[in-house]
Design brief:
Length: 595
């Protein structure tokens, strides 16, 4: 079927993207500009003094070194651990596939602060790892507040993203290509290295870059797990702006972090010739992200000698000769163990929530319901209520703006409008959240939005709007434009077409966007910590306070409740999808019988 040209697209829809563009401009881009301005204005005098002081400070240079090294190592580990999990999910079906997805998605939909709490339980002096060490006759190790703890926290936080990026890419690779390589005499490992791995290389590259930039911009993990020994740029920005009141240094550090992240993204897009929106939003990746057989043959002809001499090729041949690669089920077994290790820290919160003492001891020495009772006191219920209210308002507004923008961009008659609007609406995904939090703090402080629910709502809409846009845009791309043409030919206005045709067809995407944006807003911690004050506090900022100031097993209660909420939401979503599928099948059957 020939591709529809721009002239055949429905006209006049581009205006629907204007509200979202204006919102991103005023609430997100303008604060970033004020952040940049603050970094060069110190005591009302322009200059680069804040940058020169930072770059001459040995402590800040140590922070930069930690950020680069820990992020790089975490990204490598994320890809190495996430790839076998993603491969097994992509090649599995039924209950086993669902089980692996649950192991990966449950931590992803849980607040990063709850994941940090789980890591504290896992690596604490009385945690499960140290208990295992003593059980085999070894001394207890100091596993918290150092680089090791930060790497564990970063890897645990980013693995779900890596897996979710790789699964759809791997699913697009034709399994018959591996069979063809085997039929030509290659062993399982050599066929994997020579054929399968190159076909998924674009997805692996995107997953690595995402893990790298997200790790570099992390705040909660290094702040709560690294201590003074493993500080990173995110924790430095927070300390400078919120704790020391040195907004100039915090702004300068934020700009340097942003420049580093953008340099990585731009360099990656130039080297791989991928669009930047495909990197920050892999859901928009086209099938071109998978290497075609023609491109693979050309690549293999040009690099066959290099492949034969490469370390990976040598390792593959050694595995084949040792017959290890021929063992059935070895990859699913490895993936199962890794997926369980990803899920394990979350499950530790359940017994801790019933601990009889405040100390994080696993297993608990005694059991009590005192922390569950504490959860339902005012000090925890008030932040919970604020988070629910902010989450509901933010999700509704972000979904409305994002879905309308998706229709506007997806149906825009001008290719230039689409090319410019698409990356612009994804800007909040390009910069680390800690940079946005610093920008919101500096700009909102001038207009009195710090420590207010309105400030939380505006900031959360800005960071969740791209999620709703991505979900809506994918749905719009799947809708045949002939529906709008037919409606227009029958005299329907654009508003009527939007209300009677497009929005009903996008019903599933709207619900998914509402759920995802609510969850993101509800468990968003970095911006909440920067904007919280005496009067207004969200649940994540209350959790951060509990983790930073004292050991409080009430955090385990919040983890259990949040996992229960996410599980109910996921089950409800699956039930709704099945009902919609059955309804559609029943409708098609009735139409067939009527015909």
């Amino acid at each position: 079927m020939a591709r529809r040209t721009d002239s055949a697209r429905p006209k006049g829809w581009g205006a629907l993207a204007l509200p979202a563009v204006l919102f991103i401009t005023v609430v997100y881009v303008l604060p970033l500009g004020m952040l940049l301005l603050r970094s060069v204005v110190n005591e009302e005098e322009p200059g680069l003094g804040a940058y020169t002081r930072l770059l001459a400070d040995p402590g800040f240079l140590t922070v930069l070194r930690n950020t680069a090294l820990l992020s790089l190592l975490s990204a490598v580990l994320c890809v190495l651990i996430g790839f076998p999990i993603a491969l097994t999910i992509a090649r599995s079906r039924g209950v086993f596939r669902a089980f692996l997805f649950i192991c990966v998605v449950t931590p992803y939909l849980t607040s990063v602060l709850i994941r940090v709490f789980a890591i504290q339980v896992l690596l604490g002096a009385e945690g499960i790892v140290n208990n295992l060490l003593t059980a085999v006759g070894l001394d207890r190790a100091d596993l918290l507040f150092n680089s090791f703890a930060v790497i564990v926290g970063l890897v645990h936080s980013e693995i779900p993203i890596v897996v979710l990026v790789l699964v759809p890419i791997i699913e697009k690779v034709d399994p018959s290509r591996m069979l063809a390589a085997r039929s030509l005499g290659a062993g399982p490992a050599e066929a994997f290295v020579r054929v399968f791995l190159p076909a998924t290389r674009p997805g692996l590259q995107v997953a690595f870059v995402l893990a790298l930039v997200y790790s570099a911009g992390s705040f909660a993990v290094p702040e709560l797990l690294g201590g003074n020994a493993a500080g990173m740029a995110g924790s430095f920005v927070y300390g400078a702006i919120s704790q020391e009141g040195d907004t100039a240094s915090g702004a300068a550090a934020s700009v340097l972090l942003s420049v580093a992240v953008m340099a990585v993204l731009v360099l990656f897009t130039l080297l791989t010739r991928q669009k930047i929106q495909n990197v920050v939003a892999p859901q928009l990746m086209s099938t071109a992200a998978v290497e075609t057989p023609e491109r693979e043959r050309a690549r293999r002809r040009g690099s066959r000698r290099h492949t034969r001499r490469s370390v990976s090729g040598l390792a593959a041949r050694l595995l084949d000769r040792s017959r290890i690669s021929y063992l059935p089920g070895i990859v699913p077994a490895i993936a199962t163990v890794l997926a369980l290790l990803v899920l394990l820290p979350q499950l530790l919160a359940i017994p801790i929530s019933f601990a009889g003492t405040r100390a994080l001891v696993f297993p608990p020495n005694s059991y009590s319901t005192q922390w569950w009772a504490n959860m339902f006191t005012g000090s925890w219920l008030r932040p919970l209520g604020v988070s629910v209210l902010v989450g509901v308002v933010s999700s509704v507004c972000a979904t409305a703006l994002g879905v309308l923008a998706a229709i506007g961009v997806g149906r825009a008659g001008s290719r230039a409008v689409r090319a410019l609007s698409l990356p612009y609406l994804l800007l909040p995904l390009l910069f680390p959240v800690v940079v946005a939090a610093g920008a919101f703090f500096i700009s909102f402080l001038r207009v009195g939005l710090i420590d207010t629910q309105a400030g939380f709502v505006l900031a959360h809409i800005a960071i969740t709007l791209p999620q709703a846009f991505i979900i809506g845009y994918a749905g719009v791309q799947a809708i045949n434009p002939d529906y709008e043409h037919a409606a227009a030919s029958l005299g329907a206005s654009r508003l009527r077409t939007l209300r009677r045709i497009l929005l009903p067809l996008l019903g599933g995407q709207v619900l998914a966007a509402l759920f995802l944006t609510f969850v993101t807003s509800f468990d968003e911690s970095t911006i909440a910590i920067f904007l919280s004050g005496i009067n207004v506090q969200t649940l994540p900022s209350r959790i951060f306070e509990a983790l930073a100031l004292q050991t409080d097993p009430t955090v385990g209660v919040t983890a259990v409740l949040f996992m229960a909420f996410v599980s109910v939401g996921a089950i409800a979503w699956q039930v709704l999808k099945r009902l919609r599928r059955r309804t559609a099948q029943r409708t098609e059957t009735e139409r067939g019988q009527a015909a």
